[in-house]
Design goal:
With 239 residues, this protein is of the alpha+beta class. It has seven helices and ten strands. The chain folds into two domains: 31 residues; 165 residues, Glutaredoxin, CATH 3.40.30.10. The radius of gyration is 20 Å and the shape is globular.
Length: 239
């Protein structure tokens, strides 16, 4: 049950105006950050990557599916939170992936393709995708260096000796981590334009934007860790 201090309408209006000023500053700052993101130099990708897809083997360039922009969500599979023998998809990545199907027509209409990539056999990804009722493209990067090269998977040696994650050195990185990477196709050549990791992927987590408007907010302060309340969409209310 929620408990909170109460006040008069006048007090509410004064506090709301102060908050509005802060919200406008945040909006202007977000606009500036978006501009800075677009100004990042593009890095040409010379290495060849091959992915297993529903339509057979494809190169990174072929994942664009005829469009000029590509977003790849690095989905943790076989490692992560709340795994079971039947469900090997990380619950946090599953939470984020629940937001993908609805935006696909809008992204595609703006020349952007969105796919998930995981280090796992394609048939396992297809099975989990069916369990979750998803439609978005999901490809397997198993056998390639793709997830390793883009900073979301780490070899046993890196796990022992350390590696960079989220542009900072980590002494003992986990085998896999979450992330999103962006690519552009220019004159037939693929370029890496952006990557975000850790809390950077919250940009894809629309549910948080709704919770931030609700009276109780995200309600994570009393949890063991912020993501402790996350569940797959058909597991809420289950023990």
């Amino acid at each position: 049950m929620l408990e909170h201090r109460t006040g008069t309408r006048e007090e509410w209006l004064a506090a709301r105006q102060e908050l509005l000023d802060a919200e406008k500053r945040q909006t202007r700052q977000s606009d500036e950050i978006a501009r800075m993101r677009l100004e990042l130099p593009w890095v040409q990708i010379d290495k060849e990557y091959v992915f297993a897809t529903d339509a057979g083997a494809k190169s990174l360039a072929e994942l664009f599916d005829g469009r000029s922009q590509l977003l790849v969500y690095h989905f943790m599979f076989g490692y992560g939170a709340r795994l079971t023998e039947e469900r090997q998809g990380c619950v946090g990545c599953s939470f984020i992936a629940d937001h993908f199907d609805g935006v696909l027509p809008h992204l595609n209409g703006r020349g952007v393709t969105l796919v998930c990539a995981s280090i796992a056999p394609l048939d396992q990804l297809q099975d989990y995708k069916k369990q979750m009722g998803w439609q978005f493209p999901w490809v397997s990067s198993l056998g390639s260096d793709f997830n390793y090269d883009f900073g979301v998977a780490f070899t046993e040696e890196q796990q022992r000796n350390g590696a960079d994650y989220n542009f900072r050195h980590v002494d003992e990185p986990l085998p896999q981590r979450e992330g999103v990477s962006a690519f552009a196709l220019q004159n037939g050549v693929v370029h890496h334009t952006y990557s975000a990791y850790n809390r950077g992927v919250e940009a894809l987590l629309g549910t948080y934007q709704y919770l931030d408007l609700a009276p109780g907010g995200r309600n994570e302060d009393m949890l063991e860790y912020p993501q402790a309340s996350w569940r797959r969409h058909d597991e809420y209310g289950l023990s």
